Amino acid sequence: MRTLHELFENNKRWAKSITERDPEFFPTLSKQQAPKYLWIGCSDSRVPANEIVGLMPGELFVHRNVANMVIHTDLNCLSVIQYAVDVLQVEHIMVCGHYGCGGIMAAMQYSSHGLIDNWLRHVQDVIRKHSSVLNTITDGKEKLDKLCELNVVEQVINVCQTTIVESAWARGQKLSIHGWLYGLSDGLLHDLSICITGTDEIDDISQAALSRLTKAYTK
Ligand SMILES: [Zn+2]
């Protein structure tokens, strides 16, 4: 091993501390996983899914990408959702964005960063959809944070509209989709008060959330 020695040392310490507390932890976990939750979050290194919600290995199924997007043609994300819902039978999917998201900021600034520009086009679709509200906000930080919130609502709707989730609800599977925002500056989660548990709730609950989030900016 030539490099990154310290990371392997960290790993040994981490595994040792868990084994000391529970000698059966890893042997038990190696046989199966039964998480109740699927976390869809941003790749940002400051938003570590398990740590934020205090869950151990085995308790949270995770998908992360830049700006926590759920794109209907993204086979990676769709495969994660499908496996989580159909095989692991998770009961909750949370889309968790975060304030001050660099991906969202890059999309908002229409600046060029290479290949990722293509990915961020999807955020720009969200910007166009909510331009009437966003254009009323002059403060850059406020606008960014509002877009982070609106983006989570749109991605929650996208999760709900996947054939995977629609089919799960149609067969009576218990499944709730949530929209959250994480604060980098205080480490706290904010619930956007979106909890959708069936196809017939998508429009009303997402519209109510969007109205709450944009109330201060609309006449
Ligand atoms: Zn981010």
From TrEMBL:
GO-annotated biological processes: carbon utilization
Binding site for Zn(2+): 42, 44, 98, 101
EC numbers for this chain: 4.2.1.1
SMART domains in the record: Pro_CA
Cofactor note: Binds 1 zinc ion per subunit.
Pfam families to which the protein is assigned, alphabetical: Pro_CA (PF00484)
Summary of the function given for this chain in its UniProt record: Reversible hydration of carbon dioxide.
PANTHER family xrefs: CARBONIC ANHYDRASE
UniProt similarity note: Belongs to the beta-class carbonic anhydrase family.
Protein's name in the database: Carbonic anhydrase
Organism annotation: Chloroherpeton thalassium (strain ATCC 35110 / GB-78)
Phylogenetic classification of the source organism: Bacteria, Pseudomonadati, Chlorobiota, Chlorobiia, Chlorobiales
